[in-house]
Amino acid sequence: MNWYLQALNKYAEFNGRARRKEYWFFVLFNILISLALGIVDHITGSFDPTSGVGLFGGIYAIALLLPGLTVTVRRLHDTDRSGWWVLLPFIPILGGLILFYFLVLDSTPGRNEYGDSPK
User: Helix (H, G, I), strand (E, B), or coil: what is residue 54?
Assistant: First the structure.
């Protein structure tokens, strides 16, 4: 949970580096919270099947858009790549797979142009 909160505390910090642990715990907690909010949306009747989004899940998704982007950019920095690689998913199929590969890579050891290693 601390890794998730750490990513939220740096919600607008594009500089620096994020370890794999910080990034993937952030993703894990986002998935778990989204699932829980989806259940709440179904129970309260605020889920819209045509759009696939409920009130609470939609608000959560909008609120976590910037923190999710920043932690992804910092994770790319940790692998010694520019944050602009975050735009790869706009290339159909292949772009998302390449970005996923970059996100699971180990950190660049030592210092790189984006700062000291967070390990």
Answer: strand
- Across residues 14-36, what is the average pLDDT? 93
Query: Which residues are CB-contacts of 37 (< 8 A; sequence separation ≥ 6)?
Result: 54, 56, 57, 60
pTM equals 0.89
Q: For residue 40, what are the contacts with CB-CB under 8 A and spacing of at least 6? A: 54, 56
Query: Which pLDDT value is given to residue 8?
Result: 84
94-117: per-residue pLDDT in tens? 999 999 999 999 888 888 888 887
**What does 5-42 look like in DSSP terms, one character per residue?**
HHHHHTTT--SS---HHHHHHHHHHHHHHHHHHHHHHH
Cβ-based neighbours of 25, under 8 Å, separated by 6 or more: 1, 3, 4, 7
The residue length of the chain stands at 119
Alpha-carbon distances, residue 10 vs 4, 23, 72, 89, 119 (angstroms): 10, 12, 12, 23, 17
